[in-house]
Amino acid sequence: MVASLPAVLELRPRTAREVEVDPALIAMLDARAPLTVVRGPRGYGKSTLLGAWLSGGGPGHPVVSLALTREANDAAEFWAGVAGALEAAGVLQRERADAAPAPAGDTDRLRVLGALGGRRTPLTLVLDSYHHAGRREAAAEIDDDLVELVRQNDQLYLVVATRTMRLLETSGSLSVDATIISPQNLRLDAVAVAALARRLGVPVSGRDAGRLAEGFGGWPAAVRDVLVRSRSEGGQVNLALADEYIASMVRDLRHEAVRSFLLRAAVPEEFDAEVAQLLAPQDTTPQILRNVRAAGLLREEIRDGRRTYSFAPIVRQALVRMLAESRPDELREVHRILMDHHARADDHLRVLVHAIHAGAWETAERVLEQQWHHIVTEEPVVLVAAAQLIPPEVVAAHPRFRVAREDVTGSLPPGGDRPPAPPWRTGDIRGITAEFAPQRTHGRVDPTSVALLQWGVAAVLAGDESAALYAFGRARSRAQEPGGNPTSARLATVGLALTHAIYADADIAARWLADPVLAGADRPDHEDHALVGPWLAQAAALVALDRLDEDLAERVAALPQRHRRDEVWALSVLVSALHASLDGGPADVARWAANLRAARHYLPRGGLTEVLVRTSEVEVLLAGGLDAAARKAAEDLPVSVVSVATHARLTLAAGDHRRAMARARAALEMPGLTQRSVMECWLVVAAAHHALGERVPARAAFAHAVRAGESSGLRRPFLVIPRGVFTALAGADPQVLAMWPAGLAPAHDAVAVGGEELTEILTPRELEVLQALHVHAGAVAVARELGLSVNTAKSHLRSIYHKMRVTNRAEALRRAEELDRSAQPATVAGGSDE
Q: In CATH, which of 3.40.50.300, 3.40.50.720, 2.60.120.10, 3.30.390.30 is domain 2-184?
């Protein structure tokens, strides 16, 4: 018991000379509040702070200090220790032998209360390690006595340093003015860590100082311990040295329940009160959680209305390593508990991670089989990290473990950087990926190739073209090895073709379709026709559509009927609708737009396929001249790499040329645009400049579109602009003119007149408004006929008058007649212009 040690008027702290103390904390002590509580776990610098404060002058009046030990758990020993310290300091007279007896065990308490309560000059009482003062009811009584002393005597100042939150802090601060120096105040930040490292002579960069501060949660003694040990190792900061400090702290804990809680609660990255009770199923767990949190060992956050806790990263790693080395069976038990907990919450990724740590291989394989498409696209880093923990013999027996360990690893960026998240969620595509399963392929595709093919499909729908090509490429390479499977090779090859087709590399897709491995696979009598044929038909139709090949109609007619309403079926509807919009009449356009609108309802909202279907609906309506319906279809279409070109086209169709240009140019800055979208955006810019009479920038933008078309083989995007505008911008270049597909011209193109076409002057919607002016005299009537708002009709009329260099309706109609009279023989739509 410290009572036998001499108490002093100045505190002589047990602290190192090379410490770093925040001057703001000294200022808080200098404020001389009646009650000051310094609270923090072991090693948070409480004694160091008090020592620095007192050695620097302290409060400027007498100080009596006492460091308590565990013997102070007994209330009588506590009061005896305080009495001894006050006697040694001359504040309390030694008890006379003839003094009146006090109640048993209460003598020292009454003497202390009397001496301190009657103090008439300032005195500060410092009690270090105050968490030892009493237990249970006795602790509360000691707190009450001390608070009452401070409340009644304004000459008495009480400073305590403790590891736990007590009534002295909670209730006492309601009775008297109090200064609370919490663990958050005591933590070291990166600047303080760097300053401490300089004192210790350890070279630490700003980045390493930040890692130390963050990794330890600012724990001063732990940071100092690592720095001191690193100094003896040549000055290189070694974070692994933290384990010894943390282990020593855990071993010194008095209660096994607290020790077990810390070790088990460190296994999850974060937890809440429910998980804490699962990990440490005992009655005292809520109290332990409160105490550990109050001590500052846990970070606390409110997330989605749920209070969560977590250890600092390095502290957590040390605790988990200690549990693994000293109690490996208990570690596996904790992982099984967490595995079951996350399974109830349908958190498949965490189920997988904990199943692997627990050695529950069947559970891990089942999760991967059911959720492979989500995990491999959305959490590849976690998947790879988890796969590295699996023993080699287990990996060899589970194909998806093998793919994760050998193949997914190779798709990640070098250096361990986390790849960007894919732009789309894959949705529930188990029906699609099941088509490659061994039971559907009758064993013609091995399980490892199945996993690679399913990964490729999932990556396509997640918007990760690079991962999709990598996965299909790995499957093809595997199938072409000696003893490889030809069916796997065909599926992988058609996967490569379809990926390039979806992402608008039409010529590359066509080359894959022409690969010898696919020869004859489109014939009904081919052994793999039932498996490969539908995907082959999809890819071929999409390539023919984008290139506007002569056999497009044949390719579209060959699309197989699919009974499952999924992404693949929706892609067939999309291709058929866009084909119909090329030369179909208004009835066909309206019918296919309705089909696309209906197809959206079968798809997950916000997925890549759903957005493709929605943008195609807008494109079909624009091609049919139904601009108002197209705008309505795009009302709640979110802006994305797929839809930005569509929004720019709608703005162009509305006659707002400057805004259309701005939207298209902004879209071109977005990463991840396909060549199809790039072409459409440049063509919008070109058409807008052309409509404004700005021929030089129009031709420059058009040249960008032409280069994109030449490199990709795309031709369909040219239909964004009228045939006349295309011809005008192409000039006399025969190679560029040949890029317009023979026999195709949008139905709304006007005839050629006198070397200049109205389509070179006006947009398709403006041509409709001009036509309506022949019948109607004002904007109101024109708007009613065309289904526009009056303001939109007025905007179109102003644009028409400006472009035709007229000021009113009569002049516009007269100018149109002049152009008509000077017209050369009209070019029939679909005929040759040369």
A: 3.40.50.300
